[in-house]
Design a protein that fits this description.
Elements lengths: L1 H39 L8 H4 L6 H15 L72 E3 L6 E3 L14 H12 L5 H10 L6 H27 L3 E12 L6 E11 L6 E8 L4 H8 L5 E3 L7 H4 L4 E3 L2 H15 L2 H20 L4 H29 L5 H11 L1 H4 L13 H12 L6 E2 L7 E4 L1
Parallel strand pairs: 3-6, 3-8, 6-7
Antiparallel strand pairs: 1-2, 3-4, 4-5, 5-9
């Protein structure tokens, strides 16, 4: 009996070890699938028809019943006229300048045999074509007249108009073109140098870099004013993305960070401040926020956590929670992940319904519709977590949402809070898209501002 008990104990130990190893294998397999999808897969986080069809076993029957009811209610179809509608081409913008090119016959005499009468103009046909002339540049000549008094020998002359760069040759329009091309169109300065060269304008990249740096200095008061405007609001969004920076001197690439701070998604004024920092350390966020107290909508990045101990309220992002379930479903075809995706989708259905309402109306509907959905989802996740082996990919995904549940559902108690941080992510996405087209130099790392009305 003693020997049998020892064997049973050994077998139980082996079973536990096998279960642990299998959970670890599943987790590593999931992580490998996620990495492969990030590198080679599509970026859209939507389930296709094959994946979504089995989320609800009764969905086909429901659709069939609805279609049958619609057939009984629908009126008789009208007879088809079989007239093809020719798509209409959109008219060219009327504010564009028009250059008329006249096309008339070489002779206005009738060419019919035996006639020879003079033709009379009875109308015309007009067709418009869109033209583009790249690199069209002009030179502004500022002529300041000198006026002298012959009696008292006084000289009067109009003052020099204020310029962004004193004694510089670029106008505000040219500087705006360089900045927009660099930061919005992701054209590094060496490419802009080539573009200007093709238009017979020799502007070295060193000069372009100096212009960008001086514009950053001139824009700093606007950055400071906009920051104060942001910190006067109760709800803020925050996100960050890495950028490559070439430090002068050592000629090595350094991993810097661009932080984005934005007004709440439901604010009337849409403003974003971009703060360039040489690292991703949380101290940069604390310095920017200062003594601000309010709700910060962000992801689970540890850099924000110390701010939450200083009076800042943590408002989580449901999109990050959904994304982890989506990756689990794509890699493992997990039914748990599919069920979670369906529940989160129901929450977003309510958000689409209340998007254009006031904060009070939004809060009321959320309490009525979203709160029961969230409570049911939370109870279901806790039940599933108790049945899942520690260390598995499913356990890791469930733990992320369960540990941050208070932050993820804070929007249910505040009509001014959004359900996710997508507003800030959308503001920083263009930077991530253009990350590979160039780099930020240290002397060009001034904070940039975009203000939307």
């Amino acid at each position: 009996m003693r020997q049998a008990g020892e064997h049973a104990k050994a077998i139980a130990g082996k079973d536990g070890e096998i279960k642990y190893r299998q959970a670890k294998i599943d987790r590593l397999t999931h992580e490998m699938a996620v990495l492969k999808r990030w590198k080679f897969g599509r970026s859209r986080e939507q389930l296709d028809s094959a994946q979504a069809s089995w989320l609800d076993e009764a969905i086909d029957a429901d659709i069939a019943a609805i279609e049958l009811e619609l057939e009984h209610l629908a009126p008789l179809p009208k007879a088809s006229t079989d007239i093809r509608q020719v798509p209409k081409r959109a008219a060219l913008p009327p504010e564009l300048p028009r250059i008329d090119q006249r096309h008339e016959p070489e002779s206005t005499t009738c060419t019919t045999a035996g006639c020879g009468c003079t033709l009379k103009r009875i109308g015309e046909d007009v067709s418009e074509k869109l033209d583009y002339t790249p690199g069209l540049s002009t030179v502004e000549r500022h002529i300041r007249g000198k006026w002298a008094c012959a009696q008292c020998q006084t000289l009067i002359q109009a003052p020099v108009p204020a310029q962004i760069i004193d004694k510089g040759i670029p106008t505000a329009g040219l500087l705006a073109q360089v900045l927009v091309a660099k930061y919005a169109d992701h054209l590094p300065l060496y490419r802009q140098e080539g573009i200007f060269a093709r238009a017979d304008m020799a502007i070295p990249r060193s000069t372009l870099g100096a212009w960008v740096g001086q514009c950053g200095v001139q824009l700093q008061p606007l950055v400071d004013a906009l920051r104060q405007e942001l910190l006067g609001r109760r709800v803020l969004h925050a996100d960050e993305t890495p950028v490559s920076m070439l430090k002068p001197g050592n000629k090595k690439m350094h991993r810097a960070c661009l932080w984005a701070y934005a007004h709440g998604a439901f604010e009337d004024m849409k403003a974003v401040v971009y703060d360039f920092c040489e690292s991703r350390a949380g101290e940069h966020a604390r310095i920017f926020l200062g003594d601000w107290k309010g709700a910060l909508v962000c992801d689970d990045f540890s850099g924000y956590k110390q701010s939450f101990t200083l009076g800042v309220t943590d408002a989580g992002c449901m999109t990050h929670s959904r994304r982890k379930f989506f990756e689990l479903h794509v890699s493992n075809k997990s039914q748990i992940a599919a069920q979670a995706l369906q529940s989160i989708s129901a929450l977003y259905d309510v958000e689409r319904e209340v998007k254009s309402l006031t904060a009070d109306q939004r809060l009321k509907i959320r309490q009525t519709k979203s709160r029961p959905l969230a409570d049911t989802l939370h109870q279901w996740m806790e039940l599933q977590r108790r049945q899942i082996t520690d260390g598995s990919a499913t356990a890791k995904v469930l733990d992320y949402s369960l540990k941050r549940w208070a932050a993820l559902t804070r929007f249910l108690d505040d009509g001014q809070l959004p359900i996710d941080n997508n507003w800030a992510e959308n503001q920083i996405r263009p930077v991530a898209i253009g990350r590979k087209t160039g780099y930020l130099r240290a002397h060009c790392g001034q904070a940039s501002v975009r203000l939307r009305s």
